[in-house]
Amino acid sequence: MTGDHYFTAEPSAPAQPREVQFTVAGREYALASAAGVFSATRLDPGSAVLLRKAELPGPATTGALLDLGCGFGPITGVLATVAPAATVWAVDVNERARELTAANAARLGVGARVRVAAPEEVPADLDFAQIWSNPPIRVGKDELHQLLRTWLPRLAPDGVAWLVVARHLGGDSLHRWLVDQGWQVGRHASQKGFRVLRVTR
Questions:
Q1: What is the mean pLDDT of residues 116-124?
Q2: Which of 60, 99, 134, 195 could form a disulfide with 171 if both were Cys (CB 3.0 to 4.6 A apart)?
Q3: How far is 71 from 42, CA to CA, in rounded Å?
Q4: Where does the pLDDT of residue 15 fall: very low under 50, low under 70, confident under 90, or very high at 90 and above?
Q5: pLDDT tops 70 at residue 48
């Protein structure tokens, strides 16, 4: 056993490469994954609900999209595929996750429009037309709130953020907290114990 978590910056566990297959919006994806990253063996159920229930961007979507906590890149890959006129920023503290996301973007043929970065590498003046996240609930409430306080204000004035949170891990309390912070929040969908929240200014 190691002390690694998916939010460890440099996982020490052996990579144990594998492939994860899933289907979103009628398209099949086969992405590289490895130990030491979030949901290494499958598309996380929360991410699956998010990609199935939120309103995916379309061909006319432009600007910068953010995948916050990208893991090995399934959300990034879907966003870059369905929104060919947009740039997708894939942000994660985990170095192995970033490497996998970059490799998977190249595998999907969208690497030229994907910017993989550690949080501190994102330009400070960049705002986002959309933010997508299956946020790292297990970092703890204080760190989660700080993460959202950092990134949600970077939403463009007419932008939208899509978040998925398990109900039993505090999805409803996070909804209330976001409202208390001044955001417009709607419960867009509920499925398999997950809440999909639509957040706007």
A1: 97
A2: 195
A3: 11
A4: confident
A5: yes
